[in-house]
Amino acid sequence: MDFNVLFFNSITVVIHLLVFSTDSDANCILPPELRNMDWIYNYTRPDNNQAVTTTLRFQNTVLPSPSSINFNAVGTTIDAWTCISNLTLSNTEFVVLFKSDVSYTSGPFSGSRRLYLCMKFTKVTDNLFYFYLLSDVDNTIFPNERVFNPPGNSIPADTDPLCSTFCQYSTEPKIRTLQKIGTIDVVPIDAALCTPCESPCEEQVVTCPDLAVVNFTTITNQTGTNDQDTITYACITGYELTSGSLTRQCMADGTWNGNLPVCEIVSCPDLAAVKFAKITAQTGTNYQDTITYACNKGYTPTYGSRLTRTCKADGTWNNDPPSCKKSHKAKECQQPMDDTAADQDQNGDSNVPDSVPEAANVDNLQDETKDKQPASESSNDSNDDSEDDEQQLVVSKERILKSDFFVNTILRLGLLPFIINLSRSAQFQQDNDPKHRSNLSKRFMQENQINWWDIWPSESPDFNPIEMVCMMKQRLNKKKLSTKNDLTSGNFWKNDLTVERCNTFIDHNFKGITSGCVYWWTCNRDLPKKIFPENQGRGH
């Protein structure tokens, strides 16, 4: 028997036995779109760069024989493959490793060898895939193709790392496509091989769920809802963070770190009791709540004192605690002195006689008005609802009543605190005395936002109660005083304009005006109208 014939016959027997030794227990999962389907397979041969179009069928996890991917390895035909491993990179990208069902040997001492196909797939649509064979070209098989062909004495285990063991190459492979028969889907122009093997072409975007609306907050900044995006909150005015996080970040696991912020209304501390004052109203101690005080009977707010306080957004009360001091009424009306011609300066200043006595300090006056009122003239007090309201009488010691004193002492110390505590909507009126009309006085009204009647008729007792105290207009008319001596005589003051009657006028004015500025000498400029009857027909 010819030895050569015997040798080849023995090889034939060996190959014949190995054909039936295929792997059927693969640990691999293929996308369902690929399975049990014939695909149009387009590629370029690496050995001669010729374009090839054929069909390729995936039967579950195998490429059944005769597969269009087939080789001749030293006389052995290899045309059936089984998937032994896969790696999912994204929803559309995956790596699959096929192992040849048939082994081959290059000689009696070379050992059995297998071929491996490492395919990196990208799904374009259900009808179209493209892939790359991630191996260098093996020139020992025909046709030359990109397969992994390990030496017979170094066969890797099926469980070895996929990419680092089976999918190595030194020259970049060309694209191959699988298209479902009868479809016309097109490969994108930006289709490319993404490296390394385990790297997807498109990173999977991790998205966190939208967050619920958080009460009492606003979103000041949000970069998105993907991985590493942030959302930043701020408590609305009057609210503060009590728990949770004002900034949260989307994490790689699709959740937001931290907890939802909890903002609660700001609370102000309880206030200490105020001396000589009582609380007339309080809405609470939270943001924008108010507390309102009233000075006790016989007391009045000091200059600049505010009777209402509001809880602010920073948890503090606005304004200082109110301050109340003892208030007084005029003890009695003073007898007017001789009239003296007074020049008016540009600021509305007027000169008064040297004989004007120094007025008593208002803080030393005693509250005797009520005690001195005749019962017949004070009966209207029984219906007065403002028994706790006290007024301040400001009396000038200056010999010359100038605009700066009028503004900085009378208006600033007397009028302004009352207007602030009363209401900014209240209207203030005074007569046309030059000091009242001076630029300094007007500027004060404007700067302090006092609602002021800029034009007001002089000597209008119906609307200007101060006229009733200063000039006692009606009584002067009844007496028909015609000379200065008539006015300054003691009989008029002893018998007619008595202390009791003067106090009655003052009490009446205290009910109508909270801050009265009484200057008896300012009447001197108007006395000629009372002395000379021809000056009285002017509509007053």
From TrEMBL:
<dbReference type="GO" id="GO:0003676">
    <property type="term" value="F:nucleic acid binding"/>
</dbReference>
<feature type="disulfide bond">
    <location>
        <begin position="268"/>
        <end position="311"/>
    </location>
</feature>
<dbReference type="Pfam" id="PF00084">
    <property type="entry name" value="Sushi"/>
</dbReference>
<dbReference type="InterPro" id="IPR000436">
    <property type="entry name" value="Sushi_SCR_CCP_dom"/>
</dbReference>
<feature type="domain" description="Sushi">
    <location>
        <begin position="206"/>
        <end position="265"/>
    </location>
</feature>
<feature type="region of interest" description="Disordered">
    <location>
        <begin position="318"/>
        <end position="391"/>
    </location>
</feature>
<keyword id="KW-0768">Sushi</keyword>
<feature type="domain" description="Sushi">
    <location>
        <begin position="266"/>
        <end position="326"/>
    </location>
</feature>
<feature type="compositionally biased region" description="Acidic residues">
    <location>
        <begin position="382"/>
        <end position="391"/>
    </location>
</feature>
<dbReference type="InterPro" id="IPR051277">
    <property type="entry name" value="SEZ6_CSMD_C4BPB_Regulators"/>
</dbReference>
<keyword id="KW-0732">Signal</keyword>
<dbReference type="InterPro" id="IPR035976">
    <property type="entry name" value="Sushi/SCR/CCP_sf"/>
</dbReference>
<feature type="compositionally biased region" description="Polar residues">
    <location>
        <begin position="343"/>
        <end position="353"/>
    </location>
</feature>
<dbReference type="InterPro" id="IPR036397">
    <property type="entry name" value="RNaseH_sf"/>
</dbReference>
<feature type="signal peptide">
    <location>
        <begin position="1"/>
        <end position="26"/>
    </location>
</feature>
<protein>
    <submittedName>
        <fullName>CSMD</fullName>
    </submittedName>
</protein>
<keyword id="KW-0677">Repeat</keyword>
<keyword id="KW-1015">Disulfide bond</keyword>
